[in-house]
């Protein structure tokens, strides 16, 4: 049974929203908020953050939409467009001011499982030391139909496969994620204490801020767990492709920002862990080297082979011993040759 304190706690959803006038965005937001209305535990509220949308009637649309909801939804308006991460930071700060101690991220086109609030409240109530908890995801298309794994893009298929690996629980699991897993959770599957989100805000970058921030969460010493049986509906359109890739200027531009932003987050996590005495600098260098190997392979498979080779070359230069131990003979030879010809 939940304690008296935990029963009084609500889960504060933080939802960034950007409206460029396309009807599907508003349709998706209605469905997203509808998934909150269907929660089996009514102890939730939401902070819906308009990321300085260019559509002229966004404020009126959001006011009308939220006025009809049974749950408490606060609409915030960012002063300028700065991306989903910065919009989330505004929601996090507002939740903190209102005394909310538990957060759940949810993007404006994804769907919360009906039992998410109940499960998250129970898990955090059972473990006062828990800082962060993630759930699995289910891929759905623009019509809400499930995806078959073989139809997903390579990067999404990898995420689908990796969420079947043993779950990450405990502390210092950022090292395993960096070395062996492309990601463990999209933002819409993240739940955490407000104190952690305040201590480690999202970076001011437009893309891949989620993985970078996750590295920083866990590198700070946060305790992680997995919430079973509440998969988030992660919307991936069958037509039109990835919005992030389009907005960034294409696959290669997106992958370049991905490599830069994720690495910055991981390097900060390593520096924090070294300061805490959780790892030494040698271990941190080994983790970064293995991350570069992994991300190099990932972006190569995603259509950026030259970028992938540059990541392998950097890994080789950073830690030749670790690089030799964890790469194939072909990767080692290619990276060595690339280093010689620079």
UniProtKB/TrEMBL annotation:
Q: Where is the Glycosyltransferase 2-like domain?
A: 15-150
Q: Where is this region: Disordered?
A: 323-342
- Fetch the InterPro entries from UniProt: Glyco_trans_2-like, Glycosyltransf_2, Nucleotide-diphossugar_trans
Q: What superkingdom heads the lineage?
A: Bacteria
Pfam name, any one: Glycos_transf_2
Q: What is this protein called?
A: Glycosyltransferase family 2 protein
């Amino acid at each position: 049974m939940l304690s008296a304190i935990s029963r009084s706690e609500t889960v504060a959803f933080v939802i960034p929203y950007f409206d460029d006038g396309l009807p599907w965005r508003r349709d998706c937001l209605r469905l997203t908020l509808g998934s909150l209305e269907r929660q089996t535990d009514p102890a939730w509220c939401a902070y819906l953050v308009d990321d300085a949308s260019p559509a002229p009637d966004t404020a009126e649309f959001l006011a009308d939409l939220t006025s009809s909801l049974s749950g408490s939804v606060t609409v915030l308006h960012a002063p300028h467009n700065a991306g989903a991460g910065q919009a989330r930071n505004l929601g996090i700060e507002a939740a903190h001011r209102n005394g909310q101690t538990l957060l759940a991220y949810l993007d404006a086109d994804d769907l919360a499982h009906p039992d998410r609030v109940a499960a998250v409240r129970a898990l955090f109530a059972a473990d006062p030391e828990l800082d962060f908890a993630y759930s699995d995801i289910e891929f759905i298309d623009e019509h809400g139909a499930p995806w078959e794994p073989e139809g997903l893009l390579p990067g999404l298929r990898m995420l689908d496969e990796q969420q079947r690996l043993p779950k990450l629980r405990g502390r210092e699991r950022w090292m395993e994620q960096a070395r062996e897993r492309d990601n463990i959770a999209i933002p819409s599957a993240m739940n955490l204490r407000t104190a952690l989100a305040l201590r480690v805000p999202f970076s001011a970058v437009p893309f891949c801020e989620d993985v970078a921030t996750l590295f920083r969460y866990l590198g700070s010493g946060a305790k992680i767990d997995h919430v079973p049986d509440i998969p988030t509906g992660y919307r991936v359109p069958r037509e039109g492709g990835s919005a992030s890739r389009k907005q960034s200027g294409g696959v290669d531009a997106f992958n370049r920002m991905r490599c830069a932003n994720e690495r910055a987050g991981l390097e900060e996590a390593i520096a924090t862990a070294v300061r805490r005495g959780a790892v030494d600098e040698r271990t941190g260098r080994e983790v970064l080297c293995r991350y570069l190997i992994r991300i190099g392979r990932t972006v190569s498979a995603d259509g950026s082979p030259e970028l992938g080779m540059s990541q392998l070359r950097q890994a080789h230069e950073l830690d030749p011993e670790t690089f030799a131990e964890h790469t194939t003979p072909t990767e080692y030879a290619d990276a060595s040759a690339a280093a010689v010809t620079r």
